[in-house]
Amino acid sequence: MNALRGILWEEVFSRLRLWEFLQVSVDEAVEQFRQQLQAGRLGVKSTSSSDFKKELTILQDPQHRRFGSTVDLNSAFDMFTPHSKSPSDIRKCCLCFRKGLEELNLELYKEMNHHAQQATKCIVENVFDERISDHGPKLGPVTRKYPLCSRYFIFPFKELTFDEEMQLLEQREKACHFLAHDGFVKENDLLRNSAEPGSQVYLRENCSVRVTLSSFVMERNQRTVLTCGPI
């Protein structure tokens, strides 16, 4: 089981780079900050990097693109104000702002890794229950009929390699057709949609998949529920 845990971590989660969906592009944010400082935009006070982490938050990109999240620059101008408009003071201020963003990104990296560790734990435990435990069904080798773990998502495209699936996720006109299997989460509200914003059920592999299929997709800016029959 330790070998499986290592493969999942090194060959799957590390390559997915899920933390990038939470993080901000530091270079772009700093450049925007620098340009506005040079244009004369100043705040009312300055603060340290540690205070910055406590007060400034990263705003999640609603489209969930890699490095698509942003920061509240209005607050940043109040927290990081150069002593003067000289190039050297602006440069020092931008360096401090960059350090704060990098620290925030690091926290998001750790947060996502924590989710990935939980997902790995759930997968390994499920494999043990289904294939090794004396109380389980002992499914045996991994096959198309009995995959390593329950399939959480399905899409109307041909079978793809790992790298091809990664590229497909970046194509919004196709990614919107990914469907999430409905399922049951222990001690969770049965009426709650586990795929809605704010839910981490699918991310952390906490869902026991049912035989029905449901997903929310955007079509003409309207949210439509798709429900299919048994898989």
TrEMBL record:
GO terms, molecular function: 4-alpha-glucanotransferase activity; amylo-alpha-1,6-glucosidase activity
UniProt protein name: Glycogen debranching enzyme glucanotransferase domain-containing protein
InterPro entries: AGL/Gdb1 (IPR010401), AGL_glucanoTrfase (IPR032792)
Biological processes per GO annotation: glycogen catabolic process
Top-rank lineage group of the source organism: Eukaryota
Glycogen debranching enzyme glucanotransferase domain residues: 3-205
One Pfam entry name: hDGE_amylase
